[in-house]
Request: fold
Amino acid sequence: MEMLDGLSVLNSFPLAELEVGKHLYWHIGNLKVHGQVFITSWVVIAILITASIAASRNIQRIPSGIQNFMEYALEFLRDLAKNQIGEKEYRPWVPFVGTLFLFIFVANWSGALVPWKVIHLPEGELASPTSDINTTVAFALLTSLAYFYAGISKKGVVKYFAGYAQPTPILLPFRVLEDFTKPLSLSFRLFGNILADELVVGVLVLLVPLFVPLPVMALGLFTSAIQALIFATLAAAYIGEALEEHH
Reply:
């Protein structure tokens, strides 16, 4: 009882108030749409489209400025896909892997650099799209569909699933289990890291609102970039595994 009384006293003097779990929903007929994720996702898409148009509007033989930056990003993504998928098979998958990386990268950074809290909603608040589990699960499921499509389109249904039992049938249940754990690990790793970073920064801003959060925000930007790289690299690696011939 004394412990409960002590907790009630502490709760009467809150040091910080941070709401988690409230969302803005749009009702379209019988369909309930997550409004916050839609708004922030379209902002990220608009940023990427604007950057692409600016980089390709006046292409120069000797690139400079944003054209140089976008060509460097394309070369980086091409090398990432080539290293994970293989030199013979990587080209058709560069757009998919590149889209994953660029969207997740910009979405992660938007959580720290875009002042979402300035925009007030009737319910909930805006944040990075990747801090919502729906977004990360969607990307993970798309990755699963991509490597299934890659393997089946190259080997056929029978040959692809027959590879689950190679080199020994004992591995069959583990291969099936792996197909479930891959999207789970992809989605929860990205979601957990981005949400945790935003919560830590939010609490620190409420407690020490000036200098202390700045190093944490800088570390968060670095972590966000690493998470985008990890997700894109693993997606490309899974596609490469599906395309690989078993010997």
